[in-house]
Known about the structure:
Elements: H1 3-8, E1 14-17, H2 27-35, E2 43-51, E3 59-65, E4 68-70, H3 72-79, E5 83-86, H4 89-96, E6 114-117, E7 126-129, E8 135-139, H5 141-148, E9 151-153, E10 156-158
Parallel strand pairs: 3-6, 6-9
Antiparallel strand pairs: 1-8, 2-3, 2-5, 4-10, 7-8
Amino acid sequence: MTPALKLLKGKPHRTLEYAHDPRAPAYGEEAARTLGLEPAQVFKTLVCQLEGGNARQPLVVAVVPVSGTLDLKALARACGARKAALATHEAAERATGYVVGGISPLGQKRRLPLWVDDSAATQAEIFISGGRRGLEIALAPALLCELGNGQFAPLARDD
């Protein structure tokens, strides 16, 4: 049981598992394709580094649909930072306790500020990583924000 699933114990959610292909180039897209899910409902977890401005925390988590791309300028604006960039894999793994491709926005080793693309708020259910490659969690976006102390903001742009 992953830390994310422990945090969700007793809360409404579903888990979906699939055989992860280590050759898959994009983890979230692999989950959507393998599980037959709409890519706009499957969200990837990205750990980002902030610089300058009013940024209170150097690392934050952005959750955006796999059908789009994280707009780093929009994330920086939402966080009150001057600049945002993707964190290194090493920094993301060290801060969250998860491996890249299986980073969940819930149950992280260090609770990082959570930002969720506002497209999630329009959906009854979204899918996020369950804390390991090949494990997805279906839950209400409001529950994700509640448990992760997250906020909705426009963060994604369409590919």
